[in-house]
Amino acid sequence: MWKLHHDEKIWGDPWKFRPERFLDQNGVLWMPFGIGKRACLAEPFARARYFLYVATLLRNWSFCPSKDQPLRDYDPRHMENFDLQLTLRPKPYLCRIEKREWN
């Protein structure tokens, strides 16, 4: 799916932000499967839970780059940092997690 959405033969310039790609001939936003009858009923609940989970992690812990491993460029245009099997995913990387101290 990722490869299809970034194919230059189809999109011409897939890395350029062009919101008009998602408008129909009348200028109305076109979003298949994203809204209406086919939208997931639990999506608002899941988004709220995910936000609270991540906010709690970031409030209590600092996530820092590893001292042993340099930072990589995770721009998908640089495929050497990704594994492409069934899905596109970044190669594993290390980070340090430090407890935040609150006074």
From TrEMBL:
Q: Could you say which cofactors this protein requires? A: heme
> Which is a Pfam family this sequence falls into?
p450
Q: Which topology term describes how it sits in the membrane?
A: Peripheral membrane protein
Q: Which Gene3D superfamilies match?
A: Cytochrome P450
User: What EC number is given for this enzyme?
Assistant: 1.14.14.1
Q: Which InterPro entries match?
A: Cyt_P450, Cyt_P450_CS, Cyt_P450_E_grp-I, Cyt_P450_sf
Answer yes or no on keyword Endoplasmic reticulum: yes
Kindly indicate whether the keyword Endoplasmic reticulum belongs to this entry. yes
Q: Where in the cell is it found?
A: Endoplasmic reticulum membrane; Microsome membrane
Keyword terms of this UniProt record: Endoplasmic reticulum, Heme, Iron, Metal-binding, Microsome, Monooxygenase, Oxidoreductase
What is stated as this protein's family in its record? Belongs to the cytochrome P450 family.
Q: Which PANTHER family match?
A: CYTOCHROME P450 1A, STEROID 17-ALPHA-HYDROXYLASE/17,20 LYASE
Q: What is this protein called?
A: unspecific monooxygenase
